[in-house]
Specification:
By secondary structure, this protein is α/β, with parallel strands linked by helices. It contains 15 helices and ten strands. Strands 6-7-5-8-9-10 form a six-stranded mixed β-sheet, with helices on both faces. A four-stranded parallel β-sheet has the order 2-1-3-4, with helices on both faces. Strand 3, helix 4 and strand 4 form a beta-alpha-beta unit.
Amino acid sequence: MNFKHVDIEKTIELERARHELENKSQRTPMRVYLVSLELPEDDSADIQENLVELGALVRTLGDECVAALVQKKSKPVPSTFIGQGKVEEIKASIHALKIDYVVFDQNLSPSQVRNLEQILGKLVIDRTGIILQIFRRNARTKEARTQVEIAHLEYTAPRLSNAWISWERQRGSGGSGGRLKGTGEAQIEIDRRKLKDKVASLKKELEKIQKEREVARKSRIDEWNVILVGYTNAGKTTLMNALTESQLSAKDSLFETLDSSVRKLKGSNNTNILITDTVGFIRNLPHGLVASFRSTLEEVTKADLILHIVDISHPSYKDHIRVTEDILEQLHAKDIPKVIVFNKIDNLSDEPKLPKILARVYPKSICVSTKNEEDIKKIRDFVLDFIGQNLLEEVIRVPYYNNKLLSLIYSHSRIIS
């Protein structure tokens, strides 16, 4: 089989584009084409909603969605995922719309990515790849960066470029009959081995970090722990800041928070109540990220109370609730006391009866706006009441000289008299 020199140049150009996308933190917005495949068992409304969410993920990277395509098909095409006709349609649009890269809402196999890139001449990324890019950009602590890098390398390993193999093929296979194993395959194997060694090293490093986290967690074992969970961009960090008077970054973008942050609830009457913010959830969260962030997510299993934050103004809030509930079940946190907090109620001011409707459908839920101080007080009072109901009333006799014990009682109890 003969390969033209242009194939090598195209592969190098694609690798250059991939490197720019992955490593340049501030760059000129790129133009993106979104693609999805609708199978017979899929719901059309869900496919459209997923595509809208994919667009939001792309915009979180700072890029612009200029076109979208949904193909209805009985099953994916093994080589290119979508039909050849649609591939040619996208190829024509790439030149007309000056597209920089193409994003598929479903996950693609390494061979499908390679085939599509060779035909389209542009970078092709799937949903998992986009989410990983956002996580890499937003990871700030050493633990989060390590977790994300592990997931990224495990995702990258089977997708290593065929540039070396293409070059070896161009030189000729040699021998009589079958191809000889050349420098291309050897280099791919070396690169994959290096990746495997790097992942193993990072996992050892992560274990050390997680042991430190476990020590810190044990030091808080006597405190009350309230965990905030929910779909990404539901407003968890904004609520965290309001409850604890913190200044954590709370931009209106997806996956702004990746690192668990712990702060003390203000106005808790000498009772140490800790509020923990967690990474947001999303549909089809990549398995590699779930695995890498498992120790972080397991903070949830240590909670005394879970506040499930839901953006009530989002059209798919019910689906967001389901996704979060599914992940809590995977973490074996389903039986921990939990209350749903419907946030951003101010975005639905034209529906005054909504809180009563939600209260009937979701008993004991709370409707709030994090912009409203009275609503923040409502959540704080709820947390204090919950903790109060689980406190035991005791009479304690303390020797007057034992100041250490007295200080401990004041910091961990609500003093009645």
